[in-house]
Amino acid sequence: MLPLLFNRHMSPDAAVSGTVQLRSAASPWVRFTWRTDRVPDYVPTVSSELIRPAIKEESAKVIEVILNSLALDTSWNGSFVKVEQYLSEAVGRLFNQDEPLCFVMPKGNRLVAASLLDPSSEAPSQLLSGPAVLAEYRNRGIGTRLLHASLAALRDRGLFSVSGVTRAGTVGARHVYTKFGGMCEFVQFPSRSEVPQEAKIEK
């Protein structure tokens, strides 16, 4: 997910629930927002696979799994280069902190899923990557569990509302982000002057 901004000139009628087809002629981007007080404390699961916080030494593995999960989703075509640059810079910035806020799921010696977060309430978007799961590990509830862990962690950091932006036709937008009360609205990609310095992705 990229930290995009709402189109302030958009009609309120453009706001849609996550249950509808997430495509618009006006914009291919949607922003999801969650109220953290509506996130359940527990999500039942039959999976025994572990979700845990990432450690600083895993930054290279984190960006690898995130980008590989996006590469096979055709909804990112035309935006992948920008997304790659932005997420690489975000990983570098956040993993310079003592405790980067990122959840991962390991399988043997490799990571098969990750969710990169920015806990700042001032950030344009807190879900930087969204739950990113390698294609061969999808349809197992991993994305849902990662989203829940991400929202719960941000709630524990004191955030009442969190958001993230993605392409309208992605797997995540259609099957994951609508959960836990996620509501979406179409947004426009901001101009260079509107993007905070740390979020600029074009030279």
What does this structure look like?
It is a single chain. With 203 residues, this protein is α+β, with helices and mostly antiparallel strands. It has one domain: Gcn5-related N-acetyltransferase (GNAT) (Aminopeptidase), CATH 3.40.630.30. The protein has four helices and eight strands. The strands form two sheets. It has a four-stranded antiparallel β-sheet with strand order 1-8-2-7, with helices on one face. A four-stranded antiparallel β-sheet has the order 3-4-5-6, with helices on both faces. Helix 1 packs antiparallel against helix 2. The longest helix is centred in the middle third of the chain and has 15 residues. The two termini are 19 Å apart. 41% of the residues are buried. The N terminus and C terminus are likely disordered.
Distance between the termini: 19 Å
Helix content: 10-25%
Summed up, the helix count is 4
CATH H-tier superfamily? Gcn5-related N-acetyltransferase (GNAT)
CATH architecture: 3-Layer(aba) Sandwich
Main structural class: alpha+beta
Shape: globular
The counted number of beta strands is 8
CATH topology: Aminopeptidase
Rg over C-alpha atoms, rounded to the nearest angstrom: 16 Å
List the secondary-structure elements in sequence, H or E.
Answer: EEEHHEEEHEHE
Question: How many domains comprise the coordinates?
Answer: 1
* CATH class membership: Alpha Beta
- Sheet with the most strands, sense and barrel status: 4 strands, antiparallel
